[in-house]
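Issue 218. Parser rejects a valid record. Input:
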Amino acid sequence: MASSVSTYRHVIALTGPLLPLVSFFARLPVAMSQFGSVLLVSETSGSLATAGIVGGTLSAGQVVFGPVLGRLADRHGQRPVVLAAAAVNAVATAALVAGALAGLATVPLAAVGAVAGASVPLIGPLARTRSVALAHRAKAGEGVVGAVHSLEGTLDEVSFVFGPALVGLAALALHPAVALGGAAALVAVFGTAYALHPTAAVTAGNPGRPSGRGAGAGRQPRVVHAVRGSLALQGAMFGACQAGIASLTAQLGVPGQAGIVYAAMGVVSAAVGLALGALPARFGLRLRWRVATGAALVLSVPLLFADALWPLYAVVTVLGAAYAPHLITAFALTERVVEPSRLAESMAFAASSLVAGQAAALAVSGRLAESYGPAGAFAVAVGAAALCLAIALVTRVPSARPQAPDAAAEPVKAFIPAQRTSSPEGTGAAGPAPGYAGR
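Output the parser choked on:
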């Protein structure tokens, strides 16, 4: 425990205490927008089909344009890209609220939803990229880099638990328009604050630099594609679990419990993800990937037999323990094998894979739940977990980092202390950067 706390202290020393807080609030709109748009449109139009179309175009916009924003951040730096995306997203989300309240037709409303999705600032992937860059600039050891991934994964998990919960509470107490309007305000304020944080200099971009280091450098390593497939299947597990939980709680006459059940899974997942930072380096990424996917398969099978509320709580809560380790390991594998000059794009592509898998599985498993009951949806989750394990078993994973990240932009050096202090665990983590006291 003491070792874990010490490691996370080094992470906070690298980022400053304000950056994780700002990035957390900037992530919330991503988790709020899709659910909020579905609630708002279904409320104002009276049509679940219209709500589904608008929510679907919002997800599609994020999936298609997320990697594009990541590529732009790699080339031009995070600050201008996030500032522009946050401004467009805030306006588009506010326009979605106004259009829904005004009774706009399905097609133009869906078009506004697509713009809102395409302009999502991708704070989660970009924050990972920034924090990892800070760690490498400080020549921190793999233990600290691993703790960065654990912390970022935990922030993602917590945001995806609290985001929908905030939407539900605001919709219940006031109106869905308030929830979605709140998402627009959050992205405007905290997205801008994230962009303007001094650590943005560590991701200043390289507009004149080629994207690769040779003739074949444009190709990503095979493990990257395998990880993206694994993340898409993880998203499928999320979507199938959402559909199955909603179906079973409705069947039991307690539909209001669905969000609480899903939140319980997210809380456990976040706690386990944070604890993952304490794992010794000898538990390599290949082993972690296989153990996490194997656990997801074993722990998802009992979903097929859950037929009451408390067994559902127990099964889903325990299953959450397998989710964060898989997500954290997948993003860590991506960071290990891709070129630093393409890291934001690769992280965004990984996040988009997760969203795409979730959206596709939610549509398919929802229909299966209608035809075959909750077990039909849960079967999709079990099948996706089995495929995840198969990918982890057959994919060749490098045992170590192929090469040290290259020194990119000179302005970053201002954020790294001239003298490093090694931690008792030998992580080689840097102390706080100059000028960060109290940030």
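Fixed in the parser; the record now loads. The domain at 221-398 is CATH 1.20.1250.20 (Growth Hormone; Chain: A;).
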